């Protein structure tokens, strides 16, 4: 079948943003999504009345691209408290943002999560990330996040007790090998805004983008098995020709499709492998911590990296009077649908998580019921140096073939959105 449409493969944020820009320009398109709904890696399931994001995620309301394409008021964004609660040596310690939580500044200054000098260095590092434009920040020398923290003078204490679990949870990289350019970007975004949750779950973000598109142009349950410049083939065998093809899927899937399209080996090698994460959700009668705050493992022992109670941020994440518990474990856990040995590994992880939760919160944890475990093999692209040596990689690979996704810009919601816009600009002749 031949058409004059632009063929977009993938209904995640990049594909939806590309489609939105094409619609605004009056350019016809078809978007093919293998799943039963748009969203890609940003999906939310409703289980027993709880909203479970597929992997713990937050939305930073300071993302510049998101401000241009989303209606924040309609998302009903609810903020976390700025800062964190750090579990260290049997107690929880507050590390708050003194600019936005001045009442907690004194407690933070004298907490054992780093020295007073460390807290002053946070202020100076924050200030440095706010200078100039984002392009200026991405142009600074690139090293690893860990090396950048040490070079700024932060002690091993605050790196191990705060930065490793906090940044490790953002980058899904406990070794902090992620690019220092990404570190500066994240510091800037957290300094300028809030970490939030939409009232209806993270999937509300791609749903809002999709609602602006003609529904007949969104072909769900339509898995693309082969791409060519100006053509795609579906799992059904149907081949569709168009004016251009845009590959807007996550890194591993993009690599497989582009290999079949004859992309150069260097281009395929430049698409990063993914970071893996496991998220466990529990239902509880009440939250042992009432504040809407992120809780970090500052001891570095046990499987839990971070946890929170999403219903403390926005009650719409659970049924009335009930608490949702979200626990993040960096790395993989076995899928309970696979082999006996993998199911055994999964049960072992669940037991280890429960024991650590009981150490932190006591006997009430015995009454927490497991809702679901998500093991996400490709949650984010790895962005180890020199991944961001060129912060915005070319999106046009060949005549008639364009690629976008967070692996082309930076591993964030706004990075995916920017890449989708750049892909549309390339299609329209206004970009690389």
Give structural notes.
With 432 residues, this protein is α+β, with helices and mostly antiparallel strands. The chain has 15 helices and 21 strands. The protein has a seven-stranded mixed β-sheet, sandwiched between helices. Helix 1 runs parallel beside helix 10. The mean pLDDT is 93.
Short description:
The protein has about 425 residues and is of the alpha+beta class.
Proportion of helical residues = 25-40%
How would you sum up the global shape?
Answer: globular
Structural class: alpha+beta
Kindly report the average pLDDT value: 93
Range of strand content? 15-25%
Task: Trace the largest sheet across and list its strands.
Answer: 8-7-16-17-18-15-19
Number of helices: 15
Give a count of the beta strands, DSSP E runs of length 2 or more.
Answer: 21
Please give the radius of gyration in angstroms: 22 Å
Low-confidence stretches: none
Q: Can you summarize the main beta sheet?
A: 7 strands, mixed
| Distance separating the two termini | 28 Å
In terms of topology, how is this protein built?
Blueprint: E1 6-9, H1 13-24, E2 29-32, E3 44-47, E4 50-53, E5 59-60, H2 64-69, H3 72-75, E6 77-79, E7 83-88, E8 91-96, H4 105-109, H5 116-129, H6 134-138, H7 145-151, H8 156-171, H9 180-192, E9 195-198, H10 204-211, E10 218-219, E11 224-228, E12 231-234, E13 239-241, E14 244-247, H11 251-260, H12 265-269, E15 274-284, E16 295-297, E17 306-308, H13 310-313, E18 323-330, H14 340-361, E19 369-381, E20 396-398, E21 401-403, H15 413-428
Parallel strand pairs: 1-2, 1-14, 2-10, 7-16, 14-21
Antiparallel strand pairs: 3-4, 5-9, 6-9, 7-8, 11-12, 12-13, 15-18, 15-19, 16-17, 17-18, 20-21
Helix pairs in contact: 1-10, 1-15, 7-9
